[in-house]
Amino acid sequence: MEILFFGLTLLDITLLLLVGVVTGIMAGLFGIGGGAIVVPALIPLFHSFNFPAELVVHMAIGSSLATIIFTSISAIYGHHQRQAVIWPIALKMTPGILIGAWLGALIASTIDGFWLQRLFALFLLFLSIKIAINQQSSQRYPLPNATALSFIGGGIGTLSSIVGIGGGTLTVPFLIGTGNPIQRAIATSSACGLPIAIAGTMGYLINGWGVSNLPLASSGYIYWPAALIIAFSSMLFAPTGVRLAHHLPATTTKRLFALFLLLIGIKLMLN
Questions:
Q1: Considering its fold, how many domains does the chain have in total?
Q2: Residue 13 lies in a domain
Q3: pLDDT, tens digit, 9 for 90 and up, residues 250-264
Q4: Contact at 8 Å (CB) between 157 and 195?
Q5: Minimal CA–CA distance to 234: which of 81, 44, 27, 12?
Q6: Residue 1 maps to a domain
Q7: How many other β-carbons are positioned within 10 Å of the β-carbon of residue 11?
Q8: Contact 220, 61 (CB under 8 A)
Q9: Each residue of 7-59: pLDDT tens digit?
Q10: Is 2 within the bounds of a domain?
């Protein structure tokens, strides 16, 4: 098949665009960055590109974080237009998020790709069960002060950066638990995903800088052709997810998404 772009064929580009479409819709709908979709999609693709096996998982996660920068911007804009983002909370969590995401990238660079893939698979399995059960406690907790919010942001940023997600799967339940409506929790989570993506991307870029056998058009663990193609379509479709988040009941969609995560997690665990 004809090579069109940095060694990518038309089929490769089409698959990456489709990943971006799904990522954008899910990002706007659930307030996630999309890493739970992008990382599992990129791992087999990068293997098919004949990337060095020991680099594949790190590059999938690093490239995923790079796409989340663009997806988050699009989702934030859509939610902000509807005045749904709780900016005081997002801004108080941001300092901890930045530090935590940087730390997470540093930790991930020390983990072998084999175990990093299985860590990500376990995370997806846990997440799928959590979403499927969807138990909403009636108990609500007071919103922590600014210092505590920053520390909570640090924990979310660290875990999110290790597995290459935007943090929505952790941020949304936390914000709902402090009494915020789900639409506002999703919108605020999108805002929190941007600093995670920026700090995490920089961490994977720097920690991967100078690593031998990096593919052409890579910066550290970021493979830009895939990241930019996914980002392009995800930015176009994130507003669609935003509209769905504000107009449709999410229960059925959440459970289908949980099934999707479960299947991907099992596949990654057994691969």
A1: 1
A2: yes
A3: 566 667 667 777 887
A4: yes
A5: 27
A6: no
A7: 11
A8: no
A9: 788 899 999 999 999 999 888 877 777 788 899 899 999 999 999 999 999 99
A10: no
Q: How far apart are CA 153 and CA 196, in angstroms?
A: 9
Closest-CA residue to 34 (of 235, 184, 225): 235
What type of residue sits at position 250? A
Average pLDDT, the chain: 86
Residue 39's identity, in one-letter code, is V
Range of the domain at 206: 7-270
Contact present, 239 and 27 (Cβ < 8 Å): no
Q: What share of the chain has pLDDT > 70, as a percent?
A: 92
| Percent helix / strand / coil, the chain, rounded to 5 | 75, 5, 20
Taking the C-alpha atoms of residue 185 and residue 80, their distance in angstroms, rounded to an integer, is: 12
Instruction: Select from 35, 37, 175, 51 the least CA-distant residue to 113.
Output: 51
Positive or negative, the Cα torsion across 55, 121, 175, 190? positive
pTM: predicted TM-score of the whole model, two decimal places: 0.84
In a domain, 151, yes or no: yes
**Would you place residue 2 in the very low, low, confident or very high pLDDT band (cuts 50, 70, 90)?**
low
pLDDT per residue as tens digits for the range 156-212: 999 888 877 777 777 887 888 888 887 888 889 889 999 999 999 999 999 999 898
Helix (H, G, I), strand (E, B) or coil at 208: coil
